[in-house]
Sequence to fold (149 residues):
Amino acid sequence: MALVSDFAVRGKVSEVKDAAVVFVPADTNYALHLQTASPYTGPLQQTISATIRAKAKKVYTVPSGGGFISPLLGPPRTIQGRALHVENGWVVIRAGVSVVVELPTADDALDLQEGPIAVGSIINVVAEPGATMAVVRVGTRKSRLFIKD
Fold:
């Protein structure tokens, strides 16, 4: 069984706004506005590893397309990409960065015209407001400071 922290994303927090941050994942043009469980007190403009989580309002399996998060700047509303990991109630989608998505429980919230959700399938998610970020590690691989949430 995989842990959510296994799908951490490297990046930097560029700004703190109350119980939210602007997270800039490495090697992307994203500036994601993400909620935090408590006010962020970690470093700014330093590399961290964090998990990004979202809750799905609607999920589609689609025949083709690339991985992306929309909008590039702001809170994630649409997440699309290949499923990296599927477990009961959640899926990890590679959408430029790994996003852990909690699947909806209502049957009418799933439109699986291209087959069931499985590793490798392309999934499009309409996300509920309030995607979150949790810090897994601060620093580079050489110096690790682990933070508990």
User: Anything to note?
Assistant: The two ends are 20 Å apart (CA to CA). Confidence is low (pLDDT under 50) at residues 142-149.
